[in-house]
Design goal:
Length: 210
Amino acid sequence: MPTTAPSSARSAPAADGNRPTTRDRLLEAAESLLLARDIDEVSIRAINAAAGMNPAAVHYHFGSKDALIGALLERRLAPHWHDGLARLTGRHRAGDPPAVGELVDVVLTPLGELTRTEHGRLQLRLLARVVLARRDVGFASGWFGLRPWIALLRGAIPGLGGTEAARRLLLAFDLILHTLSAAGPAEPPTRDSFRSLRAFTVAGLSAPPR
């Protein structure tokens, strides 16, 4: 899904490889504010001020606050899933569809790693607030869209339709994010709760096609 930011602004190189770009400074400022406060409590004015930028900086470099949030989450979280999703997609295309449990593990394992640190749990809570509210932040990474996951789930469950696969995946992602973000930034989920979450998610996704 394309973002609302101008492509020329998104690809602008740094003037000095050792110095953060304007986009980097805005992302860092936004992260520090968004991890401490609710999304709607953080204004564009506050982000620009925290980054030491003029009042139009966010709009110029990202197009909107939501597009900035999307860019921030992709920068911080997409690398956690990139290799796993690419590996499973490659197997699917080669005629070796991964099992449902493997799909769930590709999602849950990186999320479990995030829950080990307070900063990671705060990032997870920010992702949950965006996804559970169905907030359109212009994600561009394949991991943040349903299409690759629908193809993988249908490959794992012959006869499963695309619409039903999408419904199951949305329910699964909602459950995972709600459960892992509900404990709070200072309290990671227990190992037993993590195992139960995995088993429940696999069972729900694996139900026979209707």
